[in-house]
């Protein structure tokens, strides 16, 4: 290992664990990530935009989003991916596929095993052989029903120091809360009663990263996942990693230093590993995880889902345009991950400071009107605010604020087309691709609001619907695949290609994208309203002499003369090549 690596590692150890024996801990870190003299790079991988291209797109799914009661769900998932998405998406995020106790996989009991109800490591490796595989590193907490916490309760080393304890009399009023339950849970241990920290639920007990042994254990887990074919590591709930009483306990400097340490190891790994941080917070806080090109390779564009939903529910892109115009381009070697729907519902915190309170209230009412639920969070003053809307994105767009139900499919397709057109890598939740409706039976069965957006398709039923060209599943998936295939052939849609937000009619969300070699321009125009809109071609600066064509319809577009017309919810990608 080079002196540069050693110096950077020493600096990070000093920032995180100033009281530790730096040299000894550095050796343990190297042994954890590169056991048995595994090969490593002599020089760090230089940040560049070659990690991804316009051909990259991800599908997000649970390992058992598709079942039939006979075959292993991971086998069915692989079959579905090959039949329907091979050549259209090149990556797949399989949400936690480990043994778990609650929260649909995010209360992990064993990070080193695959949930037997899904399959085994051979199934994971097989999918990883055909798609870039993303796995979840659930860093902040583990299940209270797992062996780590059981050993903690019994006072067994090293787990007796793995979990974060706090005094219930301490002033915890500054702590940022994503949930409404009490923060601390009283437990009986071999050493007497203790109160453990539980950010997300009382089954999800927070780990104490102030203990270097916890970090070392997760570095070993990272190595295991990389060895099994994982190439994108999603750092779940990473913002809450480090806690100090008297602070908000979110985004603390030690948390960023731990992300930098993981990035340093990935930069020297032989395998091309991408770090993705999951931080469902307002824009500035979210962007901080890029660091100085030395933290996450990619961050979720968390403000996009609520603003996109608002634009299509309200019929105006005013707030979406205003937000996008202030978004900085990702730094060299960094990228946004763009999405509309996820397994968690539509987070509302990233809309704070962007959407006025009355607009958030309209969204909440609209979601409830479409059969959705609303999860709340507790504020420092004891009041509650919407944390997320629990509803499928397809059903969320079943009506507008005015109660308009026409154009449901067109409105939904427009939402996903905007995701494809923006700077960054597009990601699609499987239930968005399949236009899945709200699963009220799942909520009733589990008592969990998020189950509304976590339907399990019976594979024979799904296959029958996909074979029926009149079904909404076949219509939506077919058209999204067509648009994704078109996108993959346009250099102007490289995740880091130039982007400029167009100021046109407020009913139109417009972007100008230009390829890295400047040879291709795409004017991506998206009507978010139920009205026909006309745009003067000179307003988008179509250069005379170039042959402009709408990639989505195949129609030629004149640079001057007739207006560019957009039907309700129509999207037009107007390009000079492709």
List keywords for this structure.
single chain, 578 residues, alpha/beta, Oligo-1,6-glucosidase, domain 2, six-stranded antiparallel beta sheet
Describe the structure.
With 578 residues, this protein is an alpha/beta fold. It has a domain at 141-206: Alpha-Beta Complex (Oligo-1,6-glucosidase, domain 2). It has an eight-stranded parallel barrel, surrounded by four helices. It has a six-stranded antiparallel beta sheet with strand order 20-21-22-27-24-25, covered by helices on one side. Strand 8 and strand 9 form a beta hairpin. Helix 1 (3-16) packs antiparallel against helix 7 (253-267) and helix 2 (22-33) packs parallel to helix 6. The longest helix has 16 residues, at 212-227.
Shape: globular
Oligomerization category of the chains in this entry: single chain
Name of the CATH homologous superfamily of the domain at 141-206: Oligo-1,6-glucosidase, Domain 2
At the fold tier of CATH, the topology name of the domain at 141-206 is Oligo-1,6-glucosidase, domain 2
| Spans of at least 5 consecutive residues with low confidence | none
Enumerate the strands of the largest sheet in spatial order, edge to edge or round the barrel: 1-3-6-11-12-13-14-18
Q: How big a fraction of the residues is strand?
A: 15-25%
Q: What is the straight-line distance between the termini?
A: 45 Å
Number of helices in the DSSP assignment: 17
CATH class of the domain at 141-206: Alpha Beta
**Class from secondary-structure proportions:** alpha/beta
Based on the structure given, which CATH architecture of the domain at 141-206 is correct? Alpha-Beta Complex
């Amino acid at each position: 290992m080079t002196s540069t690596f050693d110096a950077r590692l020493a600096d990070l150890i000093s920032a995180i664990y100033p009281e530790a024996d730096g040299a000894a801990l550095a050796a343990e870190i190297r042994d954890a990530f590169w056991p048995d003299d595994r090969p490593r790079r002599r020089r760090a991988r230089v940040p560049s935009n070659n990690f991804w291209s316009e051909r990259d797109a991800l599908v997000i799914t649970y390992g058992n989003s598709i079942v039939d009661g006979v075959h292993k769900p991971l086998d069915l998932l692989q079959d579905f991916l090959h039949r329907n998405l091979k050549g259209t998406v090149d990556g797949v995020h399989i949400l936690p596929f480990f043994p778990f106790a609650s929260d649909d996989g995010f209360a992990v009991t064993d990070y080193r095993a695959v949930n037997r109800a899904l399959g085994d490591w051979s199934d994971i490796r097989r999918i990883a052989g055909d798609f870039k595989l993303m796995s979840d590193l659930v860093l902040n907490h583990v299940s209270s029903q797992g062996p780590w916490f059981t050993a903690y309760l019994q006072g067994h080393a090293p787990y007796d120091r793995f979990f974060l304890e706090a005094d219930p009399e301490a002033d915890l009023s500054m702590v940022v809360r994503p949930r409404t339950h009490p923060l601390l849970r009283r437990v009986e241990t071999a050493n007497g009663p203790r109160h453990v920290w539980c950010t997300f639920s009382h089954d999800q007990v927070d780990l104490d990263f102030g203990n270097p042994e916890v970090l070392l254990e997760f570095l070993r887990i990272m190595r295991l996942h990389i060895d099994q074919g994982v190439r994108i590591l999603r750092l779940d709930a990473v913002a809450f990693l480090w806690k100090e009483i008297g602070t908000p306990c979110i985004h603390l400097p030690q948390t960023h230093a731990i992300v930098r340490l993981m990035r340093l190891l990935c930069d020297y790994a032989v395998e091309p590993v991408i770090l993705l941080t999951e931080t469902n917070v307002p824009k500035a806080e979210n962007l901080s995880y890029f660091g100085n090109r030395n933290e996450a390779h990619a961050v979720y564009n968390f403000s996009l889902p609520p603003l996109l939903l608002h634009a299509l529910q309200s019929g105006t892109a005013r707030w979406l345009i205003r937000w996008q115009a202030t978004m900085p381009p990702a730094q060299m070697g960094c990228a946004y991950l763009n999405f509309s729907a996820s397994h968690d519902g539509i987070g509302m915190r990233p809309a704070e400071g962007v959407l006025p309170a009355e607009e958030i209230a309209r969204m909440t009412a609209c979601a409830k009107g479409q059969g959705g639920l609303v999860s709340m969070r507790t504020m420092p003053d004891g009041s509650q605010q919407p944390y997320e809307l629990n509803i499928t994105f397809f059903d969320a767009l079943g009506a507008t604020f005015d109660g308009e139900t026409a154009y449901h499919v067109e409105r939904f397709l427009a939402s996903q087309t905007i995701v494809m057109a923006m700077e960054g890598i597009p990601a699609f939740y499987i239930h968005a691709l399949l236009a899945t409706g709200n699963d009220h039976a799942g909520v009733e069965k589990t008592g969990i609001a998020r189950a509304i957006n976590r339907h399990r398709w019976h594979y024979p039923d799904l296959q029958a619907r996909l074979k029926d060209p009149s079904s909404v599943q076949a219509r939506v998936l077919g058209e999204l695949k067509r648009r994704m295939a078109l996108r993959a052939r346009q250099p102007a849609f490289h995740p880091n290609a130039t982007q400029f937000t167009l100021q046109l009619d407020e009913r139109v969300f417009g972007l100008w994208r230009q390829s890295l070699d400047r040879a291709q321009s795409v004017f991506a125009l998206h009507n978010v309203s139920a009205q026909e809109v006309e745009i003067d071609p000179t307003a988008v600066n179509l250069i005379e002499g170039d042959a402009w064509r709408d990639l989505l319809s195949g129609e030629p577009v004149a640079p001057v003369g007739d207006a560019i017309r957009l039907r309700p919810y129509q999207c037009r990608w107007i390009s000079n090549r492709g």
